[in-house]
Amino acid sequence: AQSCRAEGFLRQQLKRLENCAKRVECRLTVKPQLNAIVAPCCWWEPPLLIRSMIAARNGGLSGVQAELDKGADVNAKALGGYTPLRFAARFGRKEIAELLIANGADVNAKDKDGRTPLHFAAGKCHKEIAELLIASGADVNAKDFLGRGRTPLHSAAEGGHREIAELLIDSGAEVNPICIVEREGGPNFGFGNFTRVSVTSLDLAVDECHPEIVDLLLAHGGRTAEELSLMPRLSYSNGQLVITGKVRDIKYEVLYSSDLTEWKVLDTVTLSSDEFPPIGVPPKVYVDKTAIEHPMRFYQLRLVE
After folding, report:
1. Most buried residue, 92, 213, 294, 296, by most Cβ within 10 Å?
2. Pairwise CA distance, residues 42 & 18, whole Å
3. Which domain holds residue 186?
4. TM spans, by residue (predicted)?
5. In this predicted structure, what is the pLDDT of residue 38?
6. Same domain, 152 and 226
7. Is there a domain that residue 189 lies in?
């Protein structure tokens, strides 16, 4: 890697300076020097991002405002895809987040791993930041890259942040999205002896022993990945509901809604051998005869305990 030098400082030394700047006894002497050195040194990282990083960790809006006044790109990214808003969300600096958003910051900007500012706010339990991001149009169901599919709700559930999880659900977050995690044991995948498994927010809450999160998710229809793997598949086409599944002789309620808020029971169905036709034979269908009365209708299945 190319060394990063400015006024005799290496990049590693700048990191130590930054850490030192956090200490009370060094703040006054080191921080001004750090502000002057970092921006010209790290030429590949936009000055606004550097200012935002320093402000997010140490407080203060003057540096961020100064760069904005110069016309800095509010959505400029560092090598890792980090934006200034990402730092504000990560460290819970609402005043910085408000300033950046007011100047056009993209609340759904993703880093190289596909994480948005809301992922960080949810994972670090910064409720006011999460509320601000959601009110500004943040996608509550944003998924990261690498095939993992982690959403902000996964992060909140894993961290045990009930208020954040409740906020996300009330804002329309899907309760049972699947993400992929690596766990020890099983066949090798890449480095080490790990296996990749599918989990839901409920799985993560159970694994991390967060009973309040478990209760919240269950109250909103939360399921484990294993339960979901046994659920039938529901699709809709030309006024017909197509229901196929893997497990027989289990009852399910067919629920419908016109606004995704209030759900009512349309009927109760039991999958039998008829719903498991040979390959090439289309599955049986369920016709909602009342759907014609509504311009829009949504459906879901619920397991009858």
Report:
1. 213
2. 14
3. 140-230
4. none
5. 39
6. yes
7. yes
User: 149 and 226 share a domain?
Assistant: yes
DSSP state of 105: -
- Residue whose pair of structure tokens reads 């609340």 in the numeric block: 107
* Mean pLDDT computed over 50-78: 77
Identity of the residue numbered 272: S
Residue 40 token pair:
């010209």
Helix%, strand%, coil% for the chain, nearest 5: 40, 15, 45
Alpha helices in 22-150 (DSSP H): 24-41, 47-58, 62-69, 84-91, 94-102, 117-123, 127-135
Same domain, 181 and 226: yes
To the nearest 10°, the Cα dihedral for 41, 45, 46, 48?
-90
Residues forming beta bridges with residue 241, ordered by sequence position:
236, 286
Q: Which residue has the tokens 């309760």?
A: 175
Residue 95 in any domain: the answer is: no
CA dist 160 and 138 (Å) reads 21
* Structural domains counted in the chain: 2
pTM of the predicted model, to two decimals?
0.67
Compute CA 136 distance to the chain's CA centroid, rounded to the nearest angstrom: 16
Please spell the DSSP secondary structure of 243-298, one letter per residue: EE-SS-S-EEEEEEESSSSS-EEEEEEE--GGGSPPTTSPPPEEE-TTGGG-S--E
Q: What's the whole-number average pLDDT of the chain?
A: 77
